[in-house]
């Protein structure tokens, strides 16, 4: 397998939706024996309208990279940008406002408000931003995700898969420039999972949204335009127009 190390020079251009430049992130103590390097001088850029899957063995740094790109975690060195906005060093308040306006999240933990029904959970980010939902988009999303008969249900009345679908709808309804997805189909059956992946792919292709998805599933990654492969906190491979088989082959030599 050909190894492509991340370049050491900045790659951000005017057409870059998200970029990390020479980002390093460590956890643990101050000495080498206890310090863990989660990201090691990572430079990577994501174009508008691109659907990218981030993959790698357990502990490779893929979730840490996503958290740093989204401003959910700080970096030790280097910088991260959302479009032309450098988010490294931004205050918590400014980061919150930026995420509310420009970023959507789909996480395994759902993060639904237990006292709100499914509809209100979906609309919560729009309510916080003082805007209203696009009725046509709302109808399309709930139809695609099979949620039309679950809108009045609270999270405890929904299955895990249904809760995940509500979380996905919530992320898509704000039409964010960037969607970060952490194993978005992990709690779904294969049919619904495929529908979600197709919806994410269309969101990138038709709405120009940038999708950055962490996954361990080669089938899910095959819906992406590109796969970025990490090992030991560094980018070691990138695949364009991946298939499940090419992803499996790329991971085979990494112990994934």
TrEMBL record:
The molecular function terms in GO held by this entry are:
ATP binding
SUPFAM superfamilies per record: P-loop containing nucleoside triphosphate hydrolases
State a single Pfam family of this protein: ABC_tran
Q: Which InterPro entries does the annotation name?
A: AAA+_ATPase, ABC_transporter-like_ATP-bd, ABC_transporter-like_CS, ABC_transpr_LolD-like, MacB-like_ATP-bd, P-loop_NTPase
User: Which UniProt key words apply to this protein?
Assistant: ATP-binding, Nucleotide-binding, Transport
Domain ABC transporter residues, every copy: 18-252
Which PANTHER family did the record assign? ABC TRANSPORTER RELATED, IMPORT ATP-BINDING PROTEIN
**Would you tell me the protein name for this molecule?**
ABC transport system ATP-binding protein
Q: What is the lineage of its organism?
A: Bacteria, Bacillati, Actinomycetota, Actinomycetes, Micrococcales
